[in-house]
Amino acid sequence: MTESVCALLADLHAERVRTMAPEALAININQRRHLVETADRAGFVKAGDRVAPFTLEVAGGGKVSLEDVLRHGPAVLVFFRFAGCPACNLSLPYYHRNLYPGLAALGATLIAVSPQVPERLVEIRDRHGLGFTIASDKDNALARRFGIAFTADEASQQAMLKKGVSLGDITGTGTWELPMPAAIVIGTDRTVHFADISPDWLVRTEAGPILDAVRAIALQVAA
Q1: Sequential DSSP letters for the chain
Q2: Are 133 and 58 in contact, with CB atoms under 8 Å apart?
Q3: Looking at residue 55, what is its pLDDT?
Q4: Is the pLDDT of residue 223 over 90?
Q5: Per-residue pLDDT at 98
């Protein structure tokens, strides 16, 4: 049976329904519902867009630029929230198992992108033995350019502050801003060939459509 990232995340939600305090669960559900209802989808990055060059800081040291990656083949960007995010700790290992090997065989590079400072992103890379690049999008610059950045709502902020910590403390960014989960395939001509953005962070792109998009690029090149 094919593994599904959305099924993994549905199981996470079911466990939360079973175990979380009703007030905390309501805050989580309401924030995700609000994002779905208010997202500016017209502003999302989309197929056909051209991507200006960018450089990201790599967890563990160094930098990675779009231009360097595209010299070898297509780039696949998967945006996630931060190293301690439960949904991210399910989705990134899923991509390691189900997406990374296929992309490598097709000559494409997978980069997982978060605004969290790079030294803290090492944690999620090492915890799961992720083989692909984990990179930091400083100040959410790329997420903003792609129209996928959002700020946590007041209820979510207050709930976290009551625990004595802020999101900015966790990410090291000092802000409440995060990217929506997104999968973006960029061809060697810097054109977006596939873009899937989910305002609800418990819904993420399956590996299959991403691999199909990269295979389509390969077929165009071969034609």
Answers
A1: ----HHHHHHHHHHHHHHHS-HHHHHHHHHHHHHHHHH--GGGS--TT-B----EEEETTS-EEEHHHHHTTS-EEEEE---TT-TTHHHHHHHHHHHTHHHHHHTT-EEEEEESS-HHHHHHHHHHHT--SEEEE-GGGHHHHHTT-EEE--HHHHHHHHHTT--HHHHHSSSS-EEEPPEEEEE-TTSBEEEEEE-SSTT----HHHHHHHHHHHHHHHH-
A2: yes
A3: 98
A4: no
A5: 98
Report yes or no on whether pTM surpasses 0.85.
Answer: yes
Alpha-carbon torsion (158, 183, 75, 42), positive or negative: negative
Domain assignments of the chain as residue spans, ordered by start: 5-222
- Bridge-partner residues for 184, per DSSP? 77, 195
Q: Are 150 and 174 in contact (CB under 8 A)?
A: no
Which residues have CB under 8 Å from 105's CB, separation 6+?
none
Percentage, residues of the chain above pLDDT 90: 96
Overall fold of domain 5-222: Glutaredoxin (3.40.30)
For residue 33, what are its two tokens?
């519902």
Q: Which two tokens stand for residue 61?
A: 């040291």
Q: How many other β-carbons are positioned within 10 Å of the β-carbon of residue 219? A: 8
96-143 pLDDT, tens digit each: 999 999 999 999 999 999 999 999 999 999 999 999 999 999 999 999
**Residue 149's closest CA among 4, 7, 43?**
43
Whether residue 111 contacts residue 76, with contact meaning beta carbons closer than 8 Å, is answered with yes
CA of 65: how far to CAs of 23, 48, 116, 217, in Å?
A: 43, 20, 18, 20
